[in-house]
Structure formats: C-alpha cells, structure tokens
Design brief:
heterodimer, A: alpha/beta, Rossmann fold, Dimethylsulfoxide Reductase, domain 2, Barwin-like endoglucanases, 41 strands, 19% strand, disordered C terminus, B: mainly alpha, Formate dehydrogenase/DMSO reductase fold, 16 helices, 0% strand, disordered N terminus
Chain lengths: 1026, 475
Amino acid sequence: MAILFLLRSIVPCATIEVLSMKRDNAKSDPDRPKDATHPGAVDQGGLNRRRFLEAAGFSISLAAIGGCRRAPRQIALPFPIQPPGVIPGQMRYYASTCEGCSASCGLLVGTRDGRPLKMEGMPEHPLSGGGLCAVGQAVPMELYDSQRLMAPLRDGKTASWFDIDQEIIAALRSVREQKKSVRFVSSTITSPTLQATIDSFLGQFADAKHITLDAVSSSAILDAHEQTHGSRLLPHYRLERAEVLVSFGADFLGTWISPVEYTAAWRDRRIPTVEHPAMSYHVQFEGRMSLTGSNADRRIQIRPEEQRLLLEHLASNIAILAGDRLDWPLQPDPPLLNGNLGTLLDEVAERLWKAKNRSLVLSDSQDVDEQILVNYINHLLGSYGATIDLERPSRQRQGNDREVAQLLEDLKTGNVGALLVARTDLTHNLPDRASLLDAIGHVPLIVSFAEREDDFASLARFVCPDHRPLESWSDAEPIDGLVSLAQPTLNPQGKTRSILESLALWSSRRDSAYDIVRAHWRGAILPRCPEAGDFQQFWDETLQKGFVHLTPRATRVRAFDKSVLKPPRPAEAPDGFSLVLYTNVAMPESRHAHNPWLQELPDPVTKVTWGNYVSLSPHVAAELGLKEGDVLEVNAEDAEARIELPLVIQPGQHDRVLAIALAYGCKGTERFAGIGPEWLEARPTVQPGERVGKNAARFLHFQNGSLRYSRDNVTLRKTAKRRQLAATQEHHAIEVPPDVAPHGAARREIIQETTLAAFTKNPEAGAAEVHYDPEAQLWPEDHPKKDHHWGMVIDLNACTGCSACMIACQSENNVPVVGADEVRRHREMHWLRIDRYYEGEDAREGVAHQPMLCQHCDNAPCETVCPVLATVHSSEGLNEQIYNRCVGTRYCANNCPYKVRRFNWFEYAHDDLLQNLALNPDVTVRSRGVMEKCSMCVQRIEEARIAARSAGVPLADGDVQTACQQSCPARAIVFGDMNDLKSEIHAAQQNPRRYRVLEELNVRPSVSYLRVVKNQDEQNEKNKEA
Amino acid sequence: MSSTTATDCQVPMEDASALLRPTLVTGNRSLGDVTRDICAPMERKATKLWWAAFLVASSALLLGLTAVTYQITVGIGTWGLNRTVGWAFDITNFVFWVGIGHAGTLISAVLFLFRQKWRTSVNRSAEAMTLFAVICASIFPLIHMGRPWLAFWTFPYPNTRGPLWVNFKSPLLWDVFAISTYFLISAVFWYVGLLPDLATIRDRGRAGLRTRLARIFSLGWDGSARTWHRHETVYLLLAGLATPLVFSVHTIVSMDFATSVIPGWHTTVFPPYFVAGAIFSGLAMVLTLMIIARKVMQLEHYITIFHIEMMCKLMLSMGCIVGLAYGTEFFIAAYSGNPYEQFAFMNRAFGPYSWAYLTMVTCNVLVPQLLWFRWVRRNIVTVFAISILINIGMWFERFVIIVTSLHRDFLPSSWAHYIPTSIEIATLIGSFGLFFTCFLLFCRFIPVIAMAEVKGVLKVKRRKSSVAVSQEEVA
C-alpha cells in the first residue's frame, strides 16, 4: 500500500517546472565506475561441482528461510519516465516557504523518491537564516496524517466538489442579490497572491470584509502605530542591532511573531569573544516564566496590570534623559511599584539611553495605550529607523481585534449572508463560544477551509479542505519587499483543493493554483522588481532561490505624534490572581494540535508534554498547600468562565500570576487516546471523552478594541482530583536537594556560567576547579582516530532552549512518539533532549538550557559493558549502536553518565501506512527490545562521504551537518572533524569558554559545551559564590 | 578424623558429659532407623500439609509463568523500568537468588573440607536449595533482556556472523560464565553425593517407578570398598572445585556493579561485601527451610537445635561482615571527596528510598545482633523470625544498591523514580513459587538428608573415637 502512495506521489504536479536546489554535498553521481561488474555475471569458467553445491546450498537455505515467514508483499516499479535529475534513494532539496505559522521562514524541503521527508531551514534566507523552529520541522507529521480531511464535506458528509461548488455558487448569488454582507475570516495571510484572490473574491459583494484573527493577536501594536505613526502596521524589529533590549512580556525567542528570525538576530549579539568581549543586555519584565525570560540577563517578575505603570515610569525617566517635555509629571513612586522596581527602572532607563539608537523596547501588551508608551520610548531612544524598521514593515501579524469584535456584533444582527473561515478555528479561538454559536446560527452560508474537522468546521455547512502546505503553490511576503515562493513537493493525497482555486472558482474563474500564483506574480510582483526582465527567467530564478527582494510598497508613515500620549491613569490595585494566557513553544496554534511530535515535545521551560496546565509560583503553591498535579479549578467570575487543569509549580513566576496555555483542547485530539502502547497497566494518553488539554480561550476578553490575554480577579480552588503530569524532567534545580546534599557540593558543574565582567577580565572565568590533568591518560591511546574524529560543540550562550533541534532529530532519525503514559513513566524516546535547570531559589539566579545527546565518549562506559558488542566505537570516534545485535540488557543505559540512551520498551512503531511515509528510509525503524541513541546522524556522514568520493574530493568541513545543527535558529551547534585543524569545530574547541560535562569521569566526551556568559557585573558572580 | 579442633567441641547442654563431642543425631538412632526415617517421607503418601504447600507454591509458579509469558509477549515495558532506572526487580531478584545459593555450596563444600561433621544433616537440602536458587536466579538475566529469544548470543560459540564474538570485557558475560559454571558444578556435586542414597532406595526393593529410576541413576553402585573409595575421592575433588566458586560467583556478580561508573556501584569493596552478603542470605534461607522441613517431616532427631545454633553463629558472623561493609561504603564515600559518591550515599540513606535503606539496615545489621544471645539462637521461633527478616533485608540490600544508585546519578535532569508494576511483583512471587515447588518435589522424591553421611556421624559410631580424642587431649 505504501508503495501505491509512493507511486501516486512520485510525480509532483508540476515536476517539469520544479527546479531543484540541491545541497552541495548531495551531488549526483554522474561518474559511475565503468568497470563495475554486473552483479549477476557468472565468470567464464562455468559451473563446476563446487560452485553448483555452493549455489544449491545457498538457494536451499534461502528457500528455507523464506519459508519461515510469509514475506511482506512488495511492489516496486520503475518510473515509466525517469523525471530529470531524480535519483532513487537520494534526497533532493526544494526551496519553499514554511507555512507552519505566519512568520514565513525560508524552507528547504528534503524530498526523497517523491516524498517530502525533512524540513530544513534555508541558510540564505534573510529572515530565518537557516533556522527552522520545531513547528516548521514537524510539518511531515501533519502532511502524512491519515485523519485529515481527504475530500470536501457537506453537512458533515463527504460530497463531490461539483455538487458543493454548485451549491456554494448558488448561495453566494443569493447573498449578492439580497445585498447581505459577506465576511471572510482568516489568520494573518502573508501570501500576496492569496490576499489578492480573497480581495477579488470579496470584490463581488457589496458589503464584504476580510477579517484577520490571529491565534495570538498583536493587534495593539498595529493600532498603536496607527495612532502614533498614522499607519496601521507592524514594524520590523531588528534585534540584531539592539545592544540593549528590554521586553515587556514579549516572548520573542519562543512564540512572539517571528521567533526564528528573532532568535537568529538576538544570537548575533550574545556571543562575546576574547577580542570583542561585548554582548547585548537583555532585560525581561514578565509575569510567567517564558522562554525569552529564561534567557534574559535580568528578569523581573511583574503582574500584567503593573506593566502600564512601569512603562509610564520608564517613559518618564527616558523623557527626562532626552529632555523631552511631557504634559504630565513624572510619577512619584506609586504604591504598586515597590522600592526595588523604582531604582531598577532608573537603571534600565539609563542603560537604554546610553545605548541610544542601539536599543529597543518590545512589548506583547494588547493595551493600545501601553503600546503607545512603548512607541514613545522607542521614539525617544531613536529606535525608529535603527532597531525598528517602518519602511519595510512586517506583515507577519495583521490581526485586527476591533474588526473581530465588530464581526461578532455583525453576526448577531443576522445581516451576514456568508461566513467563510480559513486557517483559523473561529469558535475555538474566541471566548464566549455559546453566544458565538447562536450568532453563527443566523448565517445562511458557512464555509470552512479547514484541513480537518475542527470546531468551526464541524459547524460549517460546507468544508472545502485546503491543500496541505507542501501540496500546493503559494507565496509569502513576511516583510514588505521580501517575497518567497512555496512550491508543492508531492501530489495532493486526497481530493482537497487549494483555497486559491476554490475562491477563484467562486469568483467564476477556473484556474489552477499554479496559474493563479503565476498570474499574480506576473501582474503584481514582477513590476516591483526593477532589475528583473523576462518573467519566466524571474520566476525560475525565484523558484530555485526561494525568495526575492522587491521594492517595498510605499508606506505612508508620518513622524511620531506625541499628542496621542495619554496622561497616566490612577492605578488600581488588582484583585485576586492575574491570569496570563500564552501559547507554548511546541503548540503556537490550535491547528497543530493533531501533530504527535509537537504534542510530545516538552515545553522548553516546564518540560511538560501532552496538554496544558495551570502554573503557579512555588511560594503560593506552598502557601495554599498545593502539590504538582493537583487539579485546580480556575475561575473568572466576571466572565463566568472556569476551567479545571492540573498544577505545575513554576519557579520564577510572579506570586499573583496564574498562567495557562492556549491552543489546547482541540476537537479531534481524542484520537490520541491510544497512541501509546497498550498493556495491562497502561493509561490512555487522553482519558475517554477528553481531549489533549483544555481550551483556555474562554478566559479571553475584548477590551478597548483588542483581545486581552490577561485578566485579573481570577480565583483558584483545589479540587479533590489529581492528574500526574507527563513531564520529562522530575528534578528542576541545578542544585541537588539540600537534605541529601554533601557539604559544599550541592551545585554540580554541569552548567558552567560566568558574567560578562568576569569574562572580560579572564576569558576562562567560571571554569570548574580542576585538580587533575584532563589530557593525562593511564594507558596510551590504542585506537587513534587517524582519519576523521567527529565531534560537536554546543554554545550554551547561543542556545535558547527552543527545542527545534529535538524535532529535527525526531524527524531525521525516526524517533517514535510514545504517548503521555510512557512519558510519565520516563520513557520518552527523544535522542536529543534539552535539560533545563533553575538556579538559586525561585530561579532568581537564572535558568539554563543544555541540549544533551550522546556524547560519543572516547572512553565510552556503555561500550565495555555490552555482553554482545552491540555498541562499539568507530574508527572515527562515533559511538555506534547496532540495533540488530542488541539483546536489550540495558546495562549500557545504566552505565551512561549522561543518561542519553533510549530503550524500546514496547513495539512503538505503528502500522499507520500513511504516517509511516514520514519515516526516513536511511534510518532503521527500531524494533522492540533494543537500545537506541544519537548516532550523530551517521547516515548524513555516510551520504556526504559517498558524495565526496564520487566527486573525487576529500570531505570538506561543513559537508556534514547533523539534523540538529542544520536547523538550529541560534546556530548554537557546531559539528565537524576535530582532526581537521582548519575546521570550525577545531576553532570552537579552542574557545576559552569550552568545557566538557562530567569531564572528571575521564570518559572523554566528543561533545563539548561553551560556557554561559550573562551580561551582568561581577557582583552577581560573587553573590553566587557567597 | 583425628584432626578435629577444639572449637568443634561445642557441647549441647542436655548432654551429660561436657567433655564429650556433641551429639549430632539425637534419639539414639540406629543405622536402620536412619534409612527408615529418611526414606519414610518418600514412601508414604504425601501429607495434607505437603499438598497444601505444594498447591500454594505451584500457584505462585503459575502466576509467575503467566507474568513472564505476558511480559515476553508484550514487551519489557510491562515492568516499571525507565530510561534512568534500567534494572530494578529483575537484577535484584537475580542477585538475591544467586546469593541464596551460596550457603548451599558453603555448607556442602567448604564445611566438608573443614571436616565440619554437623553439615551432614543439612548439606543435601542446602545443596538442593543451591540448585533451585541458581535456576531461579538464571531466569532473571534471561527474561530481563529486551529480546530474550536472542539470549544465546551471550555465549561465545563459533557462528556465521563473522564470526562475531561476545564482549569479554563485559561483566555480564562474566556472569554468564560464572553462573553456568556454578550451576554445573553444584549439580554434579549434588548428584555425586546422592549416589549412595539412590543405591539405598534401589536396595529397599519396593516395586515401582522410583526403584527403577533409582536403579538407573545410582549408576550401578555396589557399596564395595572400591566404590566408596572412588566416590569419596570424587566428592573431595568436587568439594575442592566448588569451594572457590563460593567466592568467585558472587565476586563476579558484584562486578556487574563495581566495574561501572555509577556512584554507589563503582565500589571496590563490593566483591567481599557481596560474598559475605550471599552467604549471609543463603544461611538465612537454609535455616528457614530447615526449620520448616524438620517440623513437617519429623526430622528433629537429625536437624537438632545444635545444628540450628551452629548456623546462627555463622549467620551472625556474616551479618557483622555485611554491617562492616555498609559502614565502609559510607566511610569511603566521605573520605573520597567525590561529591557524586557522597551524594549517592546521602541519597541512599536519606533520599526518597530511605525506607528501603532503613529496612535493609534493620534486618541485616540490627536484627542479627540478637543472635549474640544463646537463648535466641536456641529458640526455634526467634531463629525462624530472624531468618525471614534477614531474607527480606538481603532482598532489600540488592534493591537499594541497584535502584537508589541508578535513580539519581550524575545529571539531575535525568533523575527519575521507579515503582514496580504488578507484572514485576508477580514475577518475584513466581520465582519463589518455582523455588518452593522444586523444593517440595525434592522433599517428596529425594532423601532430604544424606543418609550415607549421617550414618557416618551417628553417635553410636562416633562416641568412641571422640572419647579417645578427648582423652588424648587431657593427657
């Protein structure tokens, strides 16, 4: 069956058009050795008795072996016509655009035999720069999902496109005749073609509106700019230019707007060297512990309600420094600001001011007034034109909450004749679902373009499923003037239809998506590219490269208008708890809820998988006598909303803040109940009738025209229930528990840290005290790595913990998903994990993220203990695991000091033929009872080696990139041959910040780490020591 | 026979003459009585008590079999292990059962070489216990594998895979050799010792399967001086071979842990510590079994209070060595200056599994101290209770070593808890079921006391020579 799929998908719909962009190391093999003997050739000597007996013996034993088990039926057919350049079994990379979210990062789609398998970042892309987040890399799981819609639905039943089109066209005609209004709701559309198509579709109606509803809205930023700069736009933040970066709640490294781009940019200023011991200064004000906050130099816990006050204070301070006169006086220390915060803000203001034109203030606030204050601060700091680009604004978030609120009103009036919803789950993402359902009931024509029957789609009369991203033509313009193409890499697997085609058809144009995109490019994109001549050439070049720079559209931005600034409001002390709603790094939108890789990807901070939870600070939890896993009832009485979720104790969270992740509790996630192995004591991943997590959108509310993600006056009640969390980490502190800590050795030197001040004085500051010579060995080296010696260096100062590498590894190495119960039993299979440690009480001294994978030790403790030699050392320094030799004693895992070995406790492979198309054919799917672990992508090493050998050149540095390294947005991972003195890894190993984890055991790991440097003064270091 | 040492002259109180050697068999049994008494349980119908015991034991065995079948069918995930704790009940049970076996070899071989005549009453059943314990033990390394059907890969045999050899550096491989050697020698030793008794059964001349089997397995024993001579030579040689095994087997088992890098395992004191522990637990198990057997099978004349007291003394000495080893570990951890090692032991005593540690110390170190008191040693009830507690304590010792060392090792991010599943508990119960089923069958079909050897130490025969020795000493 798999082969049938394969054959169907083998010729993409426009193969002839598709120009490949191949990685250098995946060169084709034109020079096949000419003297290769034919495998079936029999030499001229003919058959003698000995040879006959050999052959007979062989065939008899073959027959006997074959007879033991029924061989799986396989049909392998050659191509009827060999597509140009396609070599069976070889990965080809096509430039495309990621459609995992609206950030629109550059993508290289690795396809093999017509199957897209591996999503990689496009190194040349100006925004993402080779990185790709976890969500982008998890796309194959959604592509090969047997439970997505494969055909259109009418009233929940499969129908033919012809019938549906007839009915929709008729319904639209009556809407037009009755002069009713049409509403098209979508999440941010970065695709200019789709935008134009929607516009032209809506153009047919008298009252038609396109409303953008983002999963997490940034509407207030756009609204604020409309007021301050006269144009409703989202600026393009240039974090790489910011020397001082102050963020009020914006989780730009995790989920905010364009995290891959921001991570890459942020990283650029985070690497101090001996020559330039400088790095940016990053302050984060936030209520919950976000991924960004965990990486900040200074993190200040605030309640969301205090944010406005802080911004006013900061604005006043900077206004004084800038000599700008305000109509309102500087706030005296208000009661809400405790003493420390006041001086702290003075400090922050000073640092921002010192770095004038090189500083940036960000906020994810949905209060337009707060965003205006942010704009004012940035204006005073000269950030506009420097760290904030308004000339080429971003189009990555266009949500307009005011219009969404208006839509809800419109729906209630009953004047809406047609409601079309694309790429968002309207009823899932908005509060007050009951009244929304009522309002929708008045609409005669409801169409959803959802790819699966989500909450809204199940209400819609027509569901016209759009293609999956990798199945259709599209484009994107994430930043004004930067346009990229998205090309299909396999034939649509079901009877789905591109939304472009559907809309064109309903606007009485019968065009293919390809034609629509090309037509738009010919008409609207080409004229914006002055240097381009011929369209076909322009198209081919762009398609191969993936993106093109255009003249930005003229934006009418006026100078900062101070008059919109409002005088400070008297601050009211908030009641009860403040609830912060956010999205997880692994689950930024509800449409990814069906992705098992993402569901099982631990949140980078809490390390919890499979579902959402309420997080609460340790103090309050202790005060209220709550334990992790207690099910709490969170109540917002003014919204009549309540939710029951298990508790996670989150160090570093503000004492009066509760945090719950959105985008959970999605319809259809009941399917994951049986994803784990089934046995006597197994508990289902999802309880019968429940979904993965719960939808917290009911706590959202509209206020002053924007959707608010925080609210106060929330109460908490403990229920009698408990639910054990599926977390991959049990102990969270870098210190061992005090009751069992040996004297003076509570903190282990696993994470080494220093401050910028100390680093400037001594680049080796922060190193562990060593009483031995790490190079001295008792015995002479008996297995010198003469040829290559593979190794890895991970810069902990660059690593943000975003977990993109974990999914990269999972996708590359066929790592199975095991379900919540197995995770609870600590049997997650990730070869690469990210250890997260809190430092100091309540994580006051910071949070550390440490990617941990097989360290490929030269004195590997796992190798000596295996009784059957199933794990051995290669001549190139790799620690190799031989699955088919492994008998599963697990001694190797016990003896591994890093605990990176993973055991197949059950048969985890599923018989899901469609899903299994996402498996990498280069990597064995492991069976039950064998050990597995990171192989340093040995298949990639071999691929590069073969390519180099066919090209007749030696392997060069950079030819081999491991999957984790390739897509790391922060470029924190360097892999290479340590024997090559000119290699990047050799240079990285000379870095004074380099250390090896558990070096004192003399296992001699091949993976080393670069010490964390925080931009702090030495005082902190001393405090730590004291 | 003349080389008896003064320490042997422990004189039971009830004996009139303090100078006389202890009475090993009481009740003034004649040679014929011995044969009759010992063969009686085999020749009469099984008692209700036996049937009850057999029913319980075989039910436990069946439960274990079901659990193991389920585990092999579904996967090792049916155990409570995880990525951090890769061994728990499985290897705990393995080490526990191997340890149990050690007392058998000690009694039969080492005490034989030291001419400890009191061993004759208990050596047969102690050896049988060894065999059954080793069978129980060897099951665990087999079923703990992820793919037990490939267990034969752990044997270095010429093969078509290259040939691909085993890893001679791996302590697990040493285990394979150690355990298989141990089983082989123990079985042969036991069987050779059984030969004269099998001949006795044969010669009792009753019709039936037993006699026919005895005829085959007694290997034509004719009771001639030559046969006896050869038998004793072989027995002595085998005793000599078995003696080093008492030390080597558990030394090698301990190396599973000692050669690793895990703090709490990586300890050079392990070999002697494990050997002492093994003998300790084995003696406790022998006592448990003997006390039951002598009661149930009315063998009080053969297994006397004197025997029990001797065993108690041995057990006390072993318990002290084990206690010393526990202390040494802590001292070395403190002295080493190695924070991981220090943490491992702090965590062992005060961490989440401190209850297991407390059980272990109480049962293995504190409780045996009662054996300093003579009345405790001579009271069947207290000795029985103590032997059971030591068995529990020694099981927990292995559990503590394995689980507490693994569950919190170097990187705190990987720390995890281990909780056994029902399948593991059923497997443990099943191993006891197997052991007791085997033992009950043994009691029923094979002379539980070495008749030929007991006859050699009967009072009637020994009194004269002992008196002679005593007189020589006096002179």
